[in-house]
Amino acid sequence: MIILYPKKEFTQPVIAECINPDVFQDKKLEEIALLRVWEGNKQRKLDELFKVEENKAENQPEGASITVHGDLSKVRKIGACMKSGEITINGDVGMHLGEEMKGGKITVHGNAGGWIGSMMKGGTIEIHGNAGDYLGAPYRGSSEGMHGGKIVVHGSVGNEAGAHMRKGIIKIYGNAGQFAGFRIRDGTIYIQKDSEGRAGACMKNGKIVVGGFLESVLPTFTIDSVKEKVKIEEEETAKGPFYLFLGDLTEDGNGKLYVSKEKNPHLSYYEKLL
Amino acid sequence: MELLIRNGTVYDPLNGVNGEKKDIAVKDGKIVEKVNERKARKIDASGMIVMPGGVDIHSHIAGSKVNSGRLLRPEDHFKDFEPKTSVTRSGVGRSIPSTFTTGYRYARMGYTTVMDPAMAPLEAKHTHEEFNDIPMIDKASYPLLGDWWFVLEYLREGDIEECAKHVAWMMAATKGYAIKLVNPGGLEAWGFGHNVKGIDDQVPYFCITPREIIRGLCKVNKLLNLPHTIHVHTNNLGKPGNYVTAIETMKSVEDLADGNKPVIHVTHCQFCAFKGDDWRTFESGAEEIANYVNAHSHATLDMGQVIFTDTTTMTADGPFQFNLYELSGNKWVNHDVETETSGGIVPFRYRRKSYVHATQWSIGLELALLIKDPWKIFMTTDHPNGGPFIAYPKIVAWLMSKKARERTLKKINPRVKSRSLLSSIDRELGFYEIAIITRAGQAKALGLKSKGHLGVGADADIAIYNFNPEAADPSKKYKTLRKAFKRAAYTIKDGKIAVRDGEVVKSVEGATLWLDVQTSEPVEVSEEMKRRFKEYWTVEYENYPVTEHYLEIQRPISVKADV
After folding, report:
1. Which residue of A has its CA nearest to B74?
2. In chain B, positions 302-341, which contact chain A (CB-CB < 8 Å)?
3. Residue B414: is the preceding peptide bond cis (ω within 30°)?
4. Is residue B523 part of a domain?
5. Which of A19, B133, B258, B467 has the fewest CB atoms within 10 Å, i.e. is most exposed?
6. In this structure, is residue B51 part of a structural domain?
7. Is B313 a domain residue?
8. End-to-end CA distance of chain B
9. Model confidence at A58, in pLDDT bands (50, 70, 90)?
10. Would you call A139 and B73 a contact, using CB atoms and an 8 Å cutoff?
11. Residues of A with CB below 8 A from B330's CB?
């Protein structure tokens, strides 16, 4: 297991795609120290910015694993394109964590920036704090969102979580900002608490579950029924009752938007339309 | 500076040089008979191919539409970027590269002259500003005149001479190079939400037909003695069954040809060689078009080859782009409707497994292989519509190697494989023919006297590729061939070594070419026209023309008109 400690407080963005178990695997400590990272517009060696240590304890999990201790909120692209192994971050982390990752696991014991798990295809990301905007969303302009995998956030997230999602699951145990599930085509987004609104705008298919307060449902959704419970994934069910809305009709969509009945008494007038 | 390129295998079709071992001497940016051997810098090109610098007759590299494409597609750039080096500037690329990168990438493939085929006259200043920022290549642009109100009015009244004078003025005002027609009549109709359905369909309000516009501007082109023919993007582009329109368009000017001189260039012909009634019965109409072109000598074509990749389609043909947007469901921009055209931009991915896309791929190659005379068909991808220009080496490999074609055929939609004519075509082009379709033919069609050949007096634009035609067979070693054409061993621009081993070693300037059409008496702009500018245009008449100081490096070409 490799352990990294930042040597200073970063003031400029650091782009560290090389902090990736696949890259570290089969490399000696000296080789890892020489890997290249960008700090601002300067290229540096990894050990100029981080103290690199190896923990040779026994009973190590299979596959390479990396642990980072410290504030990485300026460090971007950690674990980008990773296929296997594990990264644990004890502290905050910056943007593009696990971008396009295909497998493995990233755990963050802290807050994370924007574009976490952007365009990811597989693997798991778990964040114990809050996450920024564009969780699992693609790069600006692109419509190729998350293609698989799982993101779990125990805190709250910003706007446009899961935009353009095509497959996979996002679970948010806190609140979500505006436009959660913007233009999703498939997959599941579960928001345990409140959503700031416009959830599921332009969705084509897939499932969004809002367990808390949602000020209003977009007018381009129609009410379908009231469900007692919703399956989130294997062995996890959200207890309702939930209003089930279908939409978004502007996109000729057939997505499912579940909104808690108990937390949203102001939506009760929809029941007349059932 | 003097330069001597020794022992290369030279292909120079305009001078009839077919694979001879020859030395090429260069002095002061021109090709000369001989240079002082002791003083000159020598390049050893033994075991390499020497050709004139590449010429691209149709590639959207600059202008308002291209720039909107850049804005529309940040996702196109973020994975393809080039950091600055000691000689080049940084940039982003792929289907719509930034200006500097466009120049560098063309130069790396041995190209030295590129024509931007669609400039809305109202956006001419923008186009020339971008040209100023494209290094390494000479460039020019064709103003869109097929839907220009004044032209339509002159043609309605049948006043060809006045129309010619107006076009002469427009060439100078926009600093353009040739007359471009895009979906003639259709774009004017699109401004009001309509389109024309064929070349005999009437254009609303103006009461003339596309046929009259094409014929009229073809006559104008002849009166003005412009070096290039009219450059036509046909009506009904991108619709099944449109090969008929393409042939009718060529037929409509058949009688205007004198001798063997071409009078019309049908551009990105792949997109107008579709047969069938709808997308389900869609098939290739390349054979019919090739048969027509083989039997006539008044038309030239370019391929508009499709590459299986993610690209950005952009044409001045708004209605076509709207159809494409509806087909793809992707984001789009309808651009420049307020100007003399109506552009559209739609990101698009050509997929191997799609029957239609794979057929389109096949059509492009069929056209190039079925048309017997390489002087009539040129290699383009209609960059970026069929694919980015960086894919040219792939097309060279497909044209030169049946093996390469079969390899791709194996990967595409099986229905296309069994129905395509391509698998039955054995023709493989040689380097002489490749030199024609990538430079000599294009330069000849454009009337560029000092480009596309290596004769004495020509511009010293030279490409050297590291492929030995004596030691290796391009039809078998197509991968080596592709590599060689992707990264030119040397690109020499105006006698300066700009690229070496596929890397830019010197940033050289490229000039903007434009036509200075000299009419018998200077064209006077009528008060009526000025009045209309004041009343209807978004700019004042005084701000409309591009003045000469706008062009940083320019090379006007004087043309004596018959009016």
Report:
1. A141
2. 330-331
3. no
4. no
5. B258
6. no
7. yes
8. 42
9. low
10. no
11. 143
Chain A, nearest residue to B84 by Cα: A41
Number of separate domains in chain B: 1
The domain of B367 spans 137-446
Mutate: best of A42, A95, A139, partner B, most B CBs <10 A: A139
User: Strand A236-247 vs strand A222-233: parallel, antiparallel, or unpaired?
Assistant: antiparallel
Rg (CA), chain B: 22
Assign B309 to helix, strand or coil.
coil
Contact (Cβ atoms closer than 8 angstroms) between residue A101 and residue A149: yes
Element containing residue B378 per DSSP (H, E)? strand B377-378
- Angle between the N-to-C axes of helices B243-252 and B286-295, in degrees from 0 to 180, rounded to the nearest 10: 20
CB contact under 8 A, A139 and B331: no
How far is residue A253's CA from residue A261's CA, in Å, rounded to a whole number?
23
Residue A63's pLDDT band (cuts 50, 70, 90) = low
Looking at this protein, which amino acid is placed at residue B240? P
Task: Evaluate whether residue B367 is within a structural domain.
Answer: yes
Q: Which amino acid is at B22?
A: K
What is the model's pLDDT at position B265? 96
Token pair recorded at residue B97: 């590269």
Q: Please, is B362 exposed, middle or buried when counting C-beta atoms within 10 Å of its C-beta (0-12, 13-18, 19+)?
A: buried
- State yes or no: pLDDT of B480 exceeds 90: yes
pLDDT at B329: 83
CB B107 within 8 A of CB B486: no
CB contact under 8 A, B76 and A143: no
Shortest Cα distance from A114 to chain B (angstroms)?
Answer: 17
Q: Which two tokens stand for residue B553?
A: 């490096």
What's the complex ipTM?
A: 0.81
